């Protein structure tokens, strides 16, 4: 399953950051938010989607837990697109 993750905004630093953005699957785009923690014990990201988004994904036949897993893996691995002017180094370890 291919999910394309677009970051809209990041507030915070390398220790903890709040991320907002969208993800696209097939021709559908949905909003998400996430909290990213780094350093102690490695990187961890908790992504959240709204109940409305969950219902829309289910209606389209997607497994919500699988979508969240792939979304979080993309975020952790840096498989994302960033808005112009935002540098990954400002909130993620190189």
Descriptive report:
The protein is an alpha+beta fold and 94 residues long. The chain has one domain. The protein contains 2 helices and 4 strands. It has helices at residues 51-59, 64-77, and strands at residues 4-12, 16-25, 28-37, 44-48. Strands 1-2-3-4 form a 4-stranded antiparallel beta sheet, with helices on one face. The longest helix has 14 residues, at 64-77. 14% of the residues are buried. The model has no long low-confidence stretch (mean pLDDT 86).
Question: What's this model, at a glance?
Answer:
With 94 residues, the chain is α+β, with helices and mostly antiparallel strands.
Strand-residue proportion: 35-45%
Binned, the helix content reads 10-25%
Adjacency order of strands in the biggest sheet: 1-2-3-4
- How does the overall form come out from the CA principal axes? globular
- Number of self-contained structural domains: 1
**Count of helical segments?**
2
Measured on Cα atoms, how large is the radius of gyration? 13 Å
Oligomer class: single chain
The tally of beta strands, per DSSP, is: 4
Low-confidence region ranges: none
How far from one another are the termini? 27 Å
Structural category is alpha+beta
Give keywords:
single chain; alpha+beta; 4-stranded antiparallel β-sheet; 2 helices
Mind sketching the topology for me?
Elements: E1 4-12, E2 16-25, E3 28-37, E4 44-48, H1 51-59, H2 64-77
Antiparallel strand pairs: 1-2, 2-3, 3-4
